[in-house]
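To start, an entry.
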Amino acid sequence: MTDLVYVAQRFGTWQTLHRSLPLTITSGCEWGLNMYGVLEATLPHGLASGIAEDGHPLIEEGGTIINAETGSGVDRRRWQGIVHEVTPDGPNLKFTVREIAGYPDGLTFTGNIHGVKVDPAAVVRDLWAYTQAAPSGDFGVSVVGSTPLREGTDSDIKATAAKIAVDKAKAALELRSKPRKAKEAQIRKIREQYAPLLRPLTRARDDATQAYDALVQAKAPKAQLDAAKAQVTTKQEALKKKRDERDKKIEPLQTQLEDLRDEETPWQEPYDDAEEAYRAAQEQARKDGGGLKIEAADFPDTWDEITKLAKQYGFDFTTRAVWSEGKPDYRIQIAYPSAGRTRDDLTFQQGINIISELKPRSIPYASEVLGRGAGEGDGAIRANSARVDRRARRNIVLSRPEISTVSALRAEVATELKYAGGFLEIPSITVRDNPAAPLWSWNPGDTILVQGVVPNVGRIAWWHRILSWKLRSPIEAELRLERVNAI
């Protein structure tokens, strides 16, 4: 029999407030993979409005730590969390407790991280270090473990440098182009000054030409035609004289303009080269995502960033509350590529320790996943993953517009394909304490063989991975599972 004792402790001072809270448990402590557990409990009348020795409420949101412990010894502390919500319920008090691992959930990360060839596990450590460095944020959490991965490139840094180079080349070009633009403006002003003078002369020439053409069409006498033609010539000469006057003023300026353009050319080429380099750097940064970065400007949720790192880079994390006097000694253990081990030393079988009905769940089949991320049309980020087995090809589309890097989308696609096996699984089992598999003998991430009889399927022996588990009573536990090796 494994009974839990609930010890209340004050956050910050770490003073013990109560050594055995008489809680009624609605939903017990949960131990899981890449998650945090939640405890839901009720404190009965008498203690519900109790004030601790330090003058503060015994159960205080954000101020009370709940430790779930068994027996004695260094391994007795099984679970540890902080009160998250408190709700009066008549004479009683309902409250929920988040495992310490979940403290960052809803906590905005206000720092900046930019990793190049960095271990994602180190980024998790940095997130927790930043969180605990803030006032009233230290929970005694240590992040243990590493991965062999080295993620993040300097392509975004290079793109930023390329943008600076573009701006610098543009500024130099614009400085050199000022004399040329001034000369163009000077020429333009002369043309604008002559435009109203040339307009009536052009109109008079055109009118004379039309009159002459009309007389030719009418086969007018020669003397009349000669007189009309003379008018055209006179008007054309007047127009030409004014144009020549304008061009005489412009011609030397045009020569000066050509010289200025020639002087500007050597500065145009570096600008063009810088722009081309910038476009190439931008494209490379778009493809590989650049550095492994978390930026305060995005108001990121710290817990979301931790779980995204685990999912994107394919590692697991589990939790462990270590007994300590005073300040918690709480571990987040990172395992790569996965936590747990195959437990062929334990038995999970109907008639021995599985006391729940085996209710299978169907997982749809696909052999290819087509992923689409942020962007529109041809500019959208894409990543595909496929496998070939004995069955016909079938694909599904995974749309994740919130994902902005190829590497992150690739991780999503791979996970989706891994799960789209077209098989049956047992999503959960309830087991009774038994020498074949004593309570506390397994861990999240372990792989176990589930044996029994499934209606309309028959006798099964399917390997499943433990995603999480929690006590239902001192002698019973519920395990949440995911089938493995089913294809």
